[in-house]
């Protein structure tokens, strides 16, 4: 993409055909999916793959319909979505606030740096069982895990963003007698926002991972719990359908984040 | 750190394939050192204060445990966690579990690294193919791979292979996307220069594209080192025959808070070691970045 922007990339320029090369590529993308579906169907029909390992596409579709029309599904979906969103919101607010607070003093920032690096690298999912001890089997422990996992990308990216403010621009604003507050709102925030949103985007995915992992360990409800239950009962079509739902939820959350970030950080596009 | 971050596409910044972390005009060199501490002070004062913060924290923790402000069931005092760590390390099961988790992580990680880098090179060589496949890569990167854990256990059994599978899946896409991104970002002018100097494709790849992409590839490799361990642990949470993750769940259901915290520290240390090794290799291979 970067090369295309320079207008030098060796694109095919001879195509004055029916479809633009872009449309052909899009069709091929869809075609790949269709091909995979056909292959999947054939693999099951010819018994090349056991339906225990991979149920037929139609069985999964049926499982999906069973799932979506069942009375219990929406409670579980809501639980996971709720845990994810609350965990994400907590992580976002705490991450941004802490980064802004730390960036007020270079000294404090440097003192905190080693701890941030260490905690960023630690596998936070290991906290899942501990959080269950602390906060119980309910949604609180999942929110906490979700927030703990999503927190560091926001913190680190916000700090990076604030660090990226050009010193010359700060000097210029100061020489124009800008107050600290003005420097912050008119310079630091706009410079840092693209970084912050990059952090928020990955935090959205991570928050969902936190919620699902929390539900794996122990939960009363949620898609993760549903998935483990189906899998223990060997209800393969439902396992696949639930996996697809979690994937779709992840895509949806990420999509929403992209939409918001395009609106807010419009100058990036 | 400030200098590194400019060429350091972490997952956070490269997840979507935009040069998010590098807003135009934020050249690291322009960040002049603020007045304040001179280098000598920096070298000594900061680590000492950092350490002081840690010691104060540990003291406050011990004190609040002794005053019974925190129940030992919730958070045991540091001293008893420390003794428990010694016990856990000496326990007969520990080595087996450690080896299981480490093997799962490393095998999954290495497989992911090799396959992802190879596929990344293939995809960026054949641009058409890349354009067709990339939507799926993006989708799969955003989908929470941990959701695949139960499916992988059905496929590969409750043993070590399903955890390798999960460690692989979780770390694969980060490396793939970073490899493609890195190869994509080779400056067009340099490519033109190489072409005009009659460099072969192979020469262009080895002398230009590969070195240009390596910082990105290694940024991906560093992130996925942490992710691979997460994959192994999550897999062990669900069902497994061995591993530190399984032991952790067991202890926590038995309400053995001391052992849980000891294991947490040890798992954290394992994560740090794995990450440290990759970071060291990174520094050796991509020496020009430091």
Can you walk through the features of this model?
The complex is a heterodimer of chains A (269) and B (290). Chain A is globular, with a radius of gyration of 24 Å. Chain A has helices spanning 2-5, 21-45, 57-69, 73-103, 106-121, 128-135, 139-163, 167-175, 180-217, 223-232, 236-264. Chain A has two domains: 16-49; 68-268, MetI-like fold (Orthogonal Bundle), CATH 1.10.3720. Chain A is 77% helix and 0% strand. In chain A, α4 packs parallel to α7 (139-163) and α4 (73-103) packs antiparallel against α9. Chain A contains eleven helices and no strands. Chain A has 269 residues and is mainly α. Chain B is mainly α. Chain B folds into two domains: 35-70; 89-289, MetI-like fold (Orthogonal Bundle). Chain B has helices spanning 2-5, 11-14, 39-66, 78-90, 92-125, 127-142, 149-156, 160-184, 188-196, 201-238, 244-253, 257-285. In chain B, α4 (78-90) crosses α12, α8 runs antiparallel to α10 and α11 packs antiparallel against α12 (257-285). The longest helix of chain B has 38 residues, at 201-238. Chain B is flat. Residues 1-34 of chain B have low confidence and may be disordered. At the A-B interface, α2, α5, α6, α7 and α9 of A face α2, α3, α6, α7 and α9 of B.
